[in-house]
Amino acid sequence: MRFINQEDNSNLITRLDNIVKDDKISHAYIFEGSACIDKKAFAESFIKGILCSRNLGENCGNCNICSKVDHDNHEDIIYISAEGGSIKDADIIEMQDKLKTKPFGERNIVVISDCDTMTVRAQNRLLKTLEEPPGKSVIILLSENIENLVQTIQSRCVKYRINYFGSENYDFMFDKAAKVADMILNRQPFYKVKKEVDDIMGSSEETAAFLDGLQVVFRNMLIEKTKGISLYKNDDIINNIHAVETARKQIKEGVSTAYAMKNLLLKIGG
């Protein structure tokens, strides 16, 4: 199947290929990845593999179906994204009404971008659809951080992580995040820590990559018991992960990057 981030996600792509070829498509998926990754394009590659009639298990990229998916005008695909900072109950109600309509092809497909911005009420309503999906519907949730989704939704979806640390730029951001975390653990002065991230403030993509890298560093401390675990309590690390997510949300909502980053560094360095 033709995907973006092909080399960085070869194992995942092989799994998705086999799912389509073996006709073992689940009713719901979560694709988690950094804000830097075009998760929608990645999901659409999977969708084209599901819908394309020219080559089972492949997305030819040339047929009418693939073309419609590329141009966001396929009749059987329902798109939902956050408006005003969140996905609300009314958005899910509208999606549920559309799912009652018989698809032109074999199945309806829903793509929910920014799914981790769903209100609790919207998540509870979506849960009803995940528990009783109509027909052969497929619901794909795109998330930057699945920790913001209630556990009941996570448990009803097949979860995949889309990698991006394969390029030189992203490797650099991951190394920078690891360095900043190390500086904070060793109680380096705030001005030194801030100076380390000043050079990425002008780029939204680099800032997003840095924040994602910082979350990975802290998660690794919890999962792998890596360096720093003796200096941080588990609750402190979890709080740091949430602090990174808060900074990410603030920036997306229009808060100054410099302000959000300064608050983040103060929180995780406290």
What structural class is derived from the secondary structure elements? Answer: alpha/beta
Rounded to an integer, what's the Rg over CA atoms? 20 Å
The overall strand count is 5
* Mean of pLDDT: 85
The helicity comes to 40-55%
Question: Could you give the topology of this structure?
Answer:
Layout: H1 10-21, E1 28-32, H2 39-51, H3 64-70, E2 77-80, H4 89-99, E3 109-112, H5 120-131, E4 138-143, H6 151-155, E5 158-161, H7 168-185, H8 190-197, H9 204-224, H10 234-252, H11 257-268
Parallel strand pairs: 1-4, 1-5, 2-3, 3-4
Structural account:
The chain has 11 helices and 5 strands. It is α/β, with parallel strands linked by helices and about 270 residues long. The chain has 2 domains: about 150 residues, Rossmann fold (3-Layer(aba) Sandwich); about 100 residues, Zinc Finger, Delta Prime, domain 3 (Up-down Bundle), CATH 1.20.272. Strands 2-3-4-1-5 form a 5-stranded parallel beta sheet, with helices on both faces. Strand 2, helix 4 and strand 3 form a beta-alpha-beta unit. Helix 10 packs antiparallel against helix 11. The radius of gyration is 20 Å and the shape is elongated. The termini are far apart. The mean pLDDT is about 85.
